[in-house]
Amino acid sequence: MLRSLVCVLAVVTYLADAHGFFSYCPRTPARSPNATLGVCPNDFTIIGPPLEPVHQSVQAPTGLALDNDLNIYIAYPRNSGPTPNNVVIATSFASEEPWPSAEFQNCTTGQNVSTCFINVQNPVLGSDGNLYLVDSGIAPGATSPTPGGAKVLAISPTTRQLLRVWPIPSPLFYDGLNLNDLRVNLTLGSAGFAFLTDASKGGSILSVDLATGQALRRLHNTTVVMPDPTFVGSYNGQAIYSWNGTRRSFTSLGSDGIALASGNVYWGNLASRRFYYAPQTAFTDPALSEAEVLSQVQDPGECTTEQAGFTADDKGRVYILASEQNAIYYVDTQQSEVTDEINGTPPGGEGLVKAENYVVRTLVRSGLVQHADSAAIVDGWLYFCTNQLELSPRFQYKNVDRRRGPFRTYRVWIGRGPAV
């Protein structure tokens, strides 16, 4: 029997060698510029610098921010049901406490809903050192915002005091407004503007004048903010649908990730592989018609992945969290940062990169990147949280929750600062 087994192994080894493949796979596949891909089952190419875990959560997070003291803030949205805490601050690698307070986490009966959390999706750090948060105002089980509950809040990280609230006017709630993410530019106008994505099926981009509170909702029901009608994503090699028990449908989430860079708003539609950009001023000018706003939207082409989150650095580089590819992509928007000739345009130079010259590249790719959802840049590091979104019940047959925690937040060195 032993002699027969040895003979079989010898034949397998011979056949493997004869066809140019290794006869065995090393525990850690060798890596070189000339390495053949796909020679071992575990041959998953890792790209970029190493990832450093900085926090882990029991629940699946969606929102992430850091303040200037490197405190980590996590948002646990209530899109799938109640959560004890909506926003927390990390107190150690694996522990958290409600932020800014336990009382702020849930609105009580009769309370002014502008002074408590209903469903915060994401916090972001402003250039003034304060945290700005977007609350969709959609309570667990509801399909539209509570009047006064959809809002942007500013909270001081040092005093934990609520500084100001900008409620989204109820007339903008039409067609299931679903605020998802935000970025703020405090240098625009007299007190700055907040820009928000609406992930409803009809999508839209909103701007809020932080001086006056005036809010505008733009591009609703246009292709540039809507999902692909029959979009099927991919996650860890599996096709992803939306499920209601055994009833299959297609994901219908529109504009989602957002970043501000080079004077533009960048956004992607979650149920698509498309991303777009347009001048920030196109969304802040109430005198412009919808057609005039749409005419300023630029389409640089698909980016091979659905995109949950965006962020940007101080050199105009936009980062795209590429959940289908276990990766984080980037694209340079400033010509001075371009290092290759593209379409006859030499590297370097001045001005903005033309849309037709955008090239999406990979910052990191790793099996650790399990649906990176939100990202933030502080002190040369890019931080991002992961949540295995596609393994959550709404995307799994019979609505089985296949996520496996803990859910980790990582950082990767980029040597750049945050966008203004």
Automatic annotation (TrEMBL):
<keyword id="KW-0732">Signal</keyword>
<dbReference type="GO" id="GO:0005576">
    <property type="term" value="C:extracellular region"/>
</dbReference>
<feature type="signal peptide">
    <location>
        <begin position="1"/>
        <end position="18"/>
    </location>
</feature>
<dbReference type="Pfam" id="PF03022">
    <property type="entry name" value="MRJP"/>
</dbReference>
<protein>
    <recommendedName>
        <fullName>Major royal jelly protein-domain-containing protein</fullName>
    </recommendedName>
</protein>
<dbReference type="InterPro" id="IPR011042">
    <property type="entry name" value="6-blade_b-propeller_TolB-like"/>
</dbReference>
<keyword id="KW-0964">Secreted</keyword>
<comment type="similarity">
    <text>Belongs to the major royal jelly protein family.</text>
</comment>
<dbReference type="InterPro" id="IPR017996">
    <property type="entry name" value="MRJP/yellow-related"/>
</dbReference>
